[in-house]
Amino acid sequence: MTRPTEATRAALFRRLPAVDELLRLPEVAGLSEREGHAAVADSARAVLEEVRRAIAAGTLDDAGVDLAVAGLSAALERHLRASLRYSLRPVINATGVVLHTNLGRAPLSREALAHAAEVACGYSNLEYDLETGERGERDTHAQRLLAGLLELGTHATTLVVNNNAAAVLLALNSLAEGGEVVVSRGELVEIGGSFRIPDVMAKSGAILREVGTTNRTRISDYEQAITDRTRLLLRVHRSNFQITGFTEQPSLQQLVDLGRARQLPVMEDLGSGALFDLASVGVSGEPGVAESLRTGADVVTYSGDKLLGGPQAGLLSGQRELITRIRKNPLFRALRVDKLTYAALEATLLAYVRRDGSVPVLRMLRLSRQEIGERARGLQSKLRDVANLAIEIEQGESMIGGGAAPAATLPTVLLALTRAGRSADQLARALRQWEPPVIARVEDERVLLDLRTVFPEQDSALADALRQAAGTS
Ligand SMILES: *Cc1c(COP(=O)(O)O)cnc(C)c1O
């Protein structure tokens, strides 16, 4: 193609319809009726501008402009669909990672969502005491239920902030600013790529006093590090890695005894913080929040959207005197959560009180290999007629994820897919492009699907996605 001259370019521009002409086309007028005139007009201007730019750049000749003009209403509709579509959308999580940080961690229960919707669509008693008719505190909405669930008694209570990173920052700043915090070198962890204990410590204004070595820290190491500048003994859960072999770490009990003897508070950053017994899903050696408090930790910090299965939040449970000091820190005002979070958290906690099995994370963790296998075989036979798609069923492991129990996996059944003539990456890509997108694992040139994290009501949407991906990928 030769580059058009100024004169031919001007002629090409004249072949383009005006925005109004484009809007009067019957199919475009129909779109305006459904989606509103303003949005359709915006898309009309955008697609015309795109063709104009192509003409100006000399990338469209006579025939090219004809094609572009003929395709204007279709291009307009595509543009409109893309611009009116949500960026944040639901996906089907077929990875088997229950707490997948990139996929939004804990899915909320219908009850939590319904309560949040009811509270958020109108006014609420967020900070209003209905008894006295006076100002109340938002904290009460989570404190009541957690007091019972954690058997806190009157000497302890709970505070809610934006996430667990905020909880740790707030606690360190409130309890140890300007002083020293003793931590084992083996616990100076990075979680989720951006939460590093030394960095959070520095921002809190507390001074990190590292003790021991990466693999071995003894209680005597903590003891020797205590000076009159020490404000806190900190223990951090190794959420996403394990140190095995020649290791030593004092028990929480030893740390608590030392704290008592030297009159120093002990804080445990649990991270995942289960409100149920993890042994009930086959994961051993992981302390829950209640256990840590029973052992004597003065403050325990944990996430709302990890094993607790609720909304994003950070919870601080512990000695009332310390929690009250933390509550008085002006930073709390910057880190507190809104009514949506309180509503979703309260509904999630109520599900624990009722033991009604409505917390999705718990339901997924409790699915047996057999239950998952039955659904997997159902899907396999449903898709037997799809040409090009080979589906095998095999045993595998699901991961809890979310920085919980690093070595813990749950037995599951996997669907292993291969599509004749296409790579596993191509098939996985086609699945991501379906609506709703399906996110799967790719391993050894196969696409692996784990139904543990697929809601049963999504099984048929998943089957549709697989049919389509097998056809077009
Ligand atoms: C996940 C985690 C955090 C960070 O919690 P967020 O809720 O993601 O802010 C901090 N500490 C530990 C030990 C964790 O596992």
Q: What does this molecule look like?
A:
The protein has 473 residues and is an alpha/beta fold. The protein is built from 20 helices and 18 strands. The protein has a 7-stranded mixed beta sheet, with helices on both faces. The chain is globular. The two termini are 32 Å apart. The model has no long low-confidence stretch (mean pLDDT 93). Residues 163-165, 168, 191-192, 195, 236-237, 239, 269, 271-272, 303, 314, 403 line the site of pyridoxal-5'-phosphate (PLP).
Task: Give the SSE map.
Blueprint: H1 6-14, H2 19-24, H3 26-35, H4 37-56, H5 62-70, H6 72-84, E1 92-93, E2 97-99, H7 110-120, E3 128-129, E4 134-135, H8 140-149, E5 156-161, H9 164-176, E6 180-184, E7 190-191, E8 195-196, H10 197-204, E9 207-211, H11 219-225, E10 230-236, H12 252-262, E11 266-271, H13 289-295, E12 299-303, E13 314-319, H14 320-328, H15 330-335, H16 339-354, H17 360-366, H18 369-382, E14 389-401, E15 409-419, H19 424-432, E16 438-439, E17 441-443, E18 446-450, H20 459-472
Parallel strand pairs: 1-16, 2-14, 6-9, 6-10, 10-11, 11-12
Antiparallel strand pairs: 3-4, 5-13, 7-8, 12-13, 14-15, 15-18, 17-18
Helix pairs in contact: 3-4, 4-6, 7-16, 8-16, 9-10, 9-14, 19-20
This protein binds pyridoxal-5'-phosphate.
CATH-derived topology of the largest domain? Aspartate Aminotransferase, domain 2
Oligomer: single chain
Instruction: Write down the overall geometry.
Output: globular
Strand order of the largest sheet: 5-13-12-11-10-6-9
* CATH superfamily placement of the largest domain: Type I PLP-dependent aspartate aminotransferase-like (Major domain)
Strand content: 15-25%
Helical residue percent band: 40-55%
Task: Report on the biggest sheet.
Answer: 7 strands, mixed
Hetero groups bound? pyridoxal-5'-phosphate
Rg, Å, rounded: 29 Å
What's the CATH class of the largest domain, please? Alpha Beta
Mean pLDDT comes to 93
Stretches where pLDDT is under 50 for at least 5 consecutive residues are none
The number of distinct helices, counting runs of at least 4 residues, comes to 20
Question: What is the level-2 CATH architecture name of the largest domain?
Answer: 3-Layer(aba) Sandwich
- How many domains comprise the coordinates? 3
Q: Give the beta-strand count.
A: 18
Distance between the termini: 32 Å
